[in-house]
Every structure is written in C-alpha cells, then in structure tokens.
C-alpha cells in the first residue's frame, strides 16, 4: 500500500500506524477470502471466466506481439529500407521489389552518403557437398555490407568482414552443426552446386540462426557474385531478380531520399518511362510514371509489395489484439456486473458497516481487495492454462509464438497494467457506487438500483454485440473459404499430383524419366511439367513471371508459363480455338498457347497464327485455352501465355491419375519419384491440397474468429447465467405471487428471459452493420468473393438468441417450477 | 363444494418429520363462509395451501366440485386454480414493481382475458373496492388497508367461486380490519364461498362456521347463527 497523507507523522505514531495498516490489509484479505468462499457459485464463475479470458488473451497477445516484432531486433532498424519500384500504366499500377543487378552499383556510385547497401538474392534451395556427403540448404546471395546493416551476430570466425572475398561463405549455426558436427568449420572448403558442376567455397564465419521473427531466413550466405545469371545480367536493367536494401544516414527522412531518387530514375529508366508514356500511362501525384520508393525495414513483414515478406496485413496482428481485448472486456463485464449485482444484495451489510463507522476508503479497499484476489488467482490460472495449451495452440493456428516474448518488458508491463486496471475497475467501480450512497438508503438496501441496472444492461449489450460480431465474422469467413474451396477453377484439381522437382536433379531429365516410368501404370493418365505450381505445394514456394513485349506498337503484358506437352490434357483444360501443343508438329518450341484473356488483350478477332515478338523470338499462337484460375482467387484471371521453351526450366512435374483410389496412386507416384530422385526432400501433393494451402492465411483468420467467438460466447453466457441467478433471487417473491395468480412455467420463463433477450436483440442490431462493414472490406481483397447475405445476420441472431435463451432457461425453469408456497413462506 | 377425507401432509427435513395435517376430514358447501382457527403451527396455512391447490397432500382425498384433485398434476391443478380460486394473504403479496391497476390485472392476463375486457373488469372491481383513485400508484405508496383492498380486488377480479384468505387482517389495525371483513362478507353474500384462517375471534364471528384445528386435526366445529 502506498503511504496515505494521513500517516505522514513522526516516530511512534507512524510505527503504530504501519502495524495497524498491515493488520488491516490482512483483515481485508481474510474477509475477501471468506466472502469468496461464501458465494462459491459467483466466485467460481468469476474465476473461471477471468482465467479463460486471461489465458486466451495471453496467447492472442503473444501472437500479435510476435507478428509486430518482426525485424525489430536489428540495431539499424530505423535507418534500413527496402527498395521498390512503382510503374503506372493506363489503368493499373505495378509495384514490385525485385531489382535489376546494375541497380546497386549505380546507387552506390551516385549516392555516396548512403551508408550501406546490399542485394539479397535467392540462390534457391541448393545442394552442398562436404567430403562425400550431400546436404540441401537455402543459400542467399548478398553483398559484403549485409552484416553491417543487419544484426545477425557472428558466433564464430571473422566478425569484421565475413564476406570479403568472392568465394567466401557464411553458415548459419544450424547448418554449421549439420555439416560439420563438432568440428570447427572456419577455413574449411565446402562445395556449392551451380549450373554446371560444383564450386568450392571458403567458410569464413558462422552466424547465429535468424530468429523466428526475421523476414530473412538463410542457411548459407554467399557473395552476390555467385547469384545465378550474375555475369550475363550485370548490365541488364530489364531483368529483375533480387531485392535491394539500403541504410540511410541516421536522421535522413525516407521522403527526402525518395525525392532524390527522382533524377536517378530519369537517368536509368529513360527508355521504360518513354514507353510507359507512349502506352498511355497515367502519372502519379508527383508526375512520375515510374518511381523508386522505400519500405521501412520493420514494415517489410506486412508489405504486399516486398517479395521478402509473407505479406501479412498489419491489420491481422491488430485484429488479434483487438479480439484479445474483446475477450478481456467480456470477462471483465461479467466481473463488474456480478460485483454490482452482489453489491446491491450486500447493501445492508455495507450500510451496517458504514453506520458502525467504516470510511468510504475502507469500503472501497475492501471491495478492491476482493477483486484483486479474484483477478490474481485468475491471472495465475490463465498463465498456467496458456502454458499448457501453447503447443496445441501453435499447432492449430500455425503460429510460431514462444513464451520467450513473455520476458520482454513491454509485454510484462502490458499484462500487469491490464491486470491492475481490470482489478481496480471491476472492484472499485461497484465499491465506489455503493460507498457514495446515502447511509440511510443503503441500510434499506435500496441504492441506485436503476442506475446499476442500466449500466449492467449497457455492458451486457456490448458483451453480446462483441460475441455476435465474432459469430458473424466467423460465418462470413467460413462462407468465403467454402466458396473458394468449391469454386470450379477451370482445371482438374482433385486428380492431378504436383511434384516439386528441387535442385538436385536435372529437371528436363527428371520429367523424361518420370514420363517413361509412369507410362506403364494404368492409373496414370498423363505426365507434364511446368515452372509454376498451381496453388502452394509442399515446397511452399510460389512465383510469377510476367513478360512484356511490343505488339503492333503497344506494350502487352502477359503471365508467362513454361509448360510441357500434355499440359492441357493433364489439367483437363479446354482448347476453345486452334490446337494444343503437340509432339506431332515438330517445332512446337516456337508455338504458344494463350488463354482467352490474352486473346482479348491482343485484340485480334482470330489470333491463331499471330506472331508474338517476345523471349528473343517470334512465337506463334497455336491455340486458345479457356480461362482458368492459375492464381489464387484473390486475383482476377490475367492474360497468360504458355510455352514449351527449355530456356525456362520446369520446376514441377504434374501427373494426372484416374479417379478412384487416389491414395494408392499418390503412393505409387511418390515411390517412382523417390526412385528417380533419391535425394528428394519435399513430397508430392494433389492440386486441391495446394489450392487449399493458398488460403492458409484466411483459414488461420477464420480459426481465430471461431475461437474468439466460442470463448466470448462461453464467457458471456457464464455471466448471463450468474446474472439470471441474481435476478431470480431478487424476484423470488414476485415469481411466487405470479404463480399463485395462475402464471404457467412458460409465463415465468418469458417474464425472466424477455428483458435479456431484448438486450441480445439490441446487440445483434448493433453488431450486424459493423460486421457487415468490416467483412465487406475484407472481401474486397478477393477478386472472386461471396455476396454477404442478409440471412447470415438473421441466422446469427437466432443462434445468439437461442444460446442466450437456453442459458437463461437453466435457472428460470428451476425458479418457475418451484412451489410458490416455498417462495412466499421465506418472506 | 369441498370435501376432504383423511388428509395427511408431512414435512420432512433432514432429521425431523413434522406431521402438519393428520387424517383431517372436513367439507365446505358452496356459498359458505368458513373460518379456520387454531394455535400457531397447527397446520392452518398448510390446509389452506392444499385447498388452494398450491400444494398436494401426501395421503387422503380432496374432492373439489365433485372432482378428485388430490393426485392431479401440477399443470391441471394450476388450471383449475386460476379459474376457480382467489387468494388473500396476511402480507398482501402485491408486486412492488407493478401499479395497483397492473397488479389487479395480472390474474386476467394469466387466464387469457382480452385486453379491452380486462380494463373493464379491473376498473369495475377497483371501483367496488373504492381504490379507483389509486389505480396508478405503486403498492409502497399505499397504506396497509389500501394494499389489502387491492389484494382482495386482485383475488376477486377473476370472479372465483372460492376465496382463500390467510389471516387477511393480521397486518391491519382494527378499523381497516373491519373494512376488509365487510368486503369479504359482501362477496360472500354475492355467492362466493370463503375460507378464512384467522387468529381473531372477532373476525371469526363474521363467518357461518368455525373449524378449530389442533396438531393437524379437527377438534371442534362451531356453527354461528
Ligand atoms: N416447508 C415446510 N418445511 C417443514 N416444515 C413445515 C413447512 N411448512 C410448514 N411446516 C411445519 O408444519 C406445521 C404447520 O405449519 P403451518 O404453516 O401450516 O402452521 P399455521 O397453523 O399456519 O401457523 P401460523 O398460525 O403460525 O401461521 C408447522 O409445524 C411447521 O413448522
Ligand atoms: Mg399460517
């Protein structure tokens, strides 16, 4: 307790006061515990509700903080940015973070005050050789500045400049342990698989593993000079392949530097700018059609532009925090409502205490100590529950949360702050309300009943509105997910298996071998290859190639897809015009298939036979296939061109199997693939699993909504249950009289429930428009989406009413069937 | 109208078993005004509750209007009750949250009388009880005598054949008490059967017949002339 001004006296007096105080506090807690014991039902409901809420809120808070903590561990986080380019077209804006190789040297030369700059290229999952052992790990290519900009501490080896030489390589601690065991890796040579053979690299350092909340993850880091295609593209401004990060001098504003980049862009992108303007580009507010911009390091995780991120919208962690606050609010509402309700049944006790001489402060302290005890127990139970359920939570929600975050001062103060606030509010407010009442009135037990019930009602409305909101959100996300899962995509997704080829086998050879091996099995219909997976495979990668070329004086952009023979057959696509690519025509490497959108884009009446000047050749349109959703349903179907050109390596083998016994077909394919590529690490998967995986983020969101909804409903109902008990206790006599006068059980049930059901109805009316607005916003993120139906709200409302009614009925029926003789006797 | 034979009622608590009514037999004819008297705890209220079908007997028979009701279900009893019986209590038992008018209206709502008819009948009976001017007051705003008049109004508004009154004057001074007794006598003269529990010999004199109970048994019946 903080010393009150009352006891700022000297010597003995102070001492005695101190003693008295500690005695008093002990007394308060003793009474608090006794009171809790006396009202076991309420104590149980309060503690369970609060503990569940604390536990759930804790897990959700950890999730949110984890997401928000991405890339915040870098010392230079405030000065480091990622570069991206913005191009304005006539009707659209392209933003991309991949950069051409000469960009970085040019920036370095022209902006000497930029502190550090590095390229960051994905070498891809790559094979490594040490002695005769082969490993597979992620290799990234960076410039020497990388370690100066980012905080990935070197734990072993050269700390000054680990990538000083072109052939230097840095391992992550895990990879080092994997390859070298307990040996010291520094100075050892390992071999890296490159296009045509193995290349020796010198291990100079071991860096600590990137933390889980890092946008960068790497097994090995080598110099950017090793990046595939480095030499060919060293002066190529039109080939984008990697990300660029730079560190501005401390204090330099992002906008100031972006302004400086204007002249840089004009100098190096002159031709592109002219072409864009020629094609009718609409300039941005600064009058630019092509411009370079920066994303702050700590925003990268949330950026849809950066190819470095998982593009989680920042809205997502805040939403999670919001839901955790909802849950806490609902639990606290129960607490406050029950305290209020009981305070009025305890009005007499309080009045008597006041008459005897208890001061207002003493009464408030008495109440607060009760709420502190209850909150304290709940918090402890909640933390324990959170620890117990953490593994399940991580699994179910695909979250990487760890309790380590708990140690951060921010989180601890957030939790403790919340705890104190809740205890004070929940205990203090009813106490204050009671203690300001006039003593005479309190003794009669008639203090501000109206005041408290309107507060109680508003709190309950908010409580149920939050629950309804979550139910509606659950329903709508579920509908959208279901819609995406069942919408026909224009290709066969249930009978096609996709195999990620990986880096340790020649892809064309792998395809040929698989074709011949699988041809002898009757359940295999056809085999083909492609460079872009449909959906998201077990390799978790997704890529897009976009090709732009000049077609009859206009720039035409198209998605570019490497396919192989039988692509159409394998996926069950439909050729609507012209013919499929086929071996029987010999030179089909100069022929292309386009989709209907592309045909539209070309603007020809009959584009069959048209020549497309692209990819260093003149490619002829052989056929048009019906549009299919080759990307997720977030995106509209875009123009697509399919080629069989070996300059574009295939990355995936697609196998169409007969319907029926899909599991055994899958087992067969996996076995044959294992024979073909013994080093394979990622398995094959059906395309419908892949498309499902595309919506992981949405699935996670819907899971969070469901859990939030369930928890808030359960807690709200516990509160409702307790309040009904209170109300019934207060109305026992009335119920008895009504029964004597002929009220039936239903009459009584209606009598008690109608007030509450009214509140629930109001909550639904409040929640519905909010939910509609928010979910409509969310649905805007999907090119293909459901319409929000009015009946969702009706059904949700009905469900909420039913749940509330059942909760109320439990106690009400008990009260309604009670023999009125008993309730009237007790008067 | 009422005939009970060998009626028994026990109350079991954890340790003791109380015999509240012990093989009690009696009958009440239509149009009678009967007073029940006896020392405290002898089972008067218990008897009244059973007669009012609020409670059921453990043994014996209870014939109400030629129907055996002793083993009726709760629902059937409630149905019979709300159409035939009105109650008046010592402590009035008005609902504090409802006005005088709403209190009196309540039995009509539960018997499903349409709204217009309800207003008419409530006003009629409030007029008769001379509390029409208090129709929009709440019970706490009334004196004890007025409250009991409201309670009687509520008991008769449904035109019951039987009124059961448990010490209706117990909480009233003698002048208010006499008023209440006059009201009951009037009702009885208009044909309503009345059974009243009382401790007051003075009040009992308003009745036609006094049944005296002791330990759950009839000990004596006085017939007044
Ligand atoms: N619900 C009950 N549980 C246990 N015992 C009961 C119950 N109701 C009544 N009794 C007992 O039954 C006996 C008769 O009670 P009853 O209320 O009928 O008495 P009474 O004659 O109305 O008394 P009074 O004149 O004081 O109102 C008493 O001994 C009482 O203690
Ligand atoms: Mg009695």
Structure overview:
The complex is a heterodimer of chains A (827) and B (225). Chain A is α+β, with helices and mostly antiparallel strands. Chain A contains 22 helices and 23 strands. In chain A, β19 (611-614) and β20 (617-625) form a beta hairpin. In chain A, α8 packs parallel to α19 (696-740). The longest helix of chain A is centred in the C-terminal third of the chain and has 45 residues, at 696-740. By secondary structure, chain B is an alpha/beta fold. In chain B, 34% of the residues lie in helices and 28% in strands. Chain B contains seven helices and ten strands. Chain B has helices at residues 44-51, 74-84, 100-110, 115-128, 144-156, 174-189, 201-204, and strands spanning 2-12, 17-28, 33-37, 59-64, 67-68, 85-88, 162-166, 193-197, 209-214, 217-223. Chain B has a six-stranded mixed beta sheet, sandwiched between helices. A four-stranded antiparallel beta sheet of chain B has the order 2-1-4-5, covered by helices on one side. In chain B, α4 (115-128) packs across α5 and α5 (144-156) runs parallel beside α6. The mean pLDDT of chain B is 90. Chain A binds chain B through residues 733-734, 736-744, 747, 817, 819-821, 824, 827, and chain B through 49, 52, 54-55, 74-75, 78, 81-82, 87, 89, 91, 93-97, 106-107, 110-111, 154. The structure holds adenosine-5'-triphosphate (ATP) and magnesium ion. The site of adenosine-5'-triphosphate has 11 residues of chain B, from β2 and α1.
Characteristic terms for this protein:
heterodimer, A: 827 residues, alpha+beta, seven-stranded mixed β-sheet, six-stranded mixed barrel, 22 helices, 50% helix, 18% strand, globular, disordered N terminus, B: 225 residues, alpha/beta, six-stranded mixed β-sheet, four-stranded antiparallel β-sheet, 28% strand, binds adenosine-5'-triphosphate, binds magnesium ion
- The computed structural class of chain B is alpha/beta
Mean pLDDT of chain B: 90
Radius of gyration of chain B: 17 Å
Derived from helix and strand composition plus strand pairing, the structural class of chain A reads alpha+beta
Determine the most extensive contact between two protein chains: A-B, 18 and 22 residues
Residue runs with pLDDT of under 50 for 5 or more positions of chain A? 1-9, 439-449
State the major sheet of chain A.
7 strands, mixed
In total, the number of strands of chain A is 23
Oligomeric state: heterodimer
Rounded to the nearest angstrom, the distance between the terminal CA atoms of chain A is: 43 Å
Low-confidence stretches of chain B: none
Shape of chain B: globular
User: Helix share of residues of chain A?
Assistant: 40-55%
Largest sheet of chain B: 6 strands, mixed
Count helical runs of chain B.
7
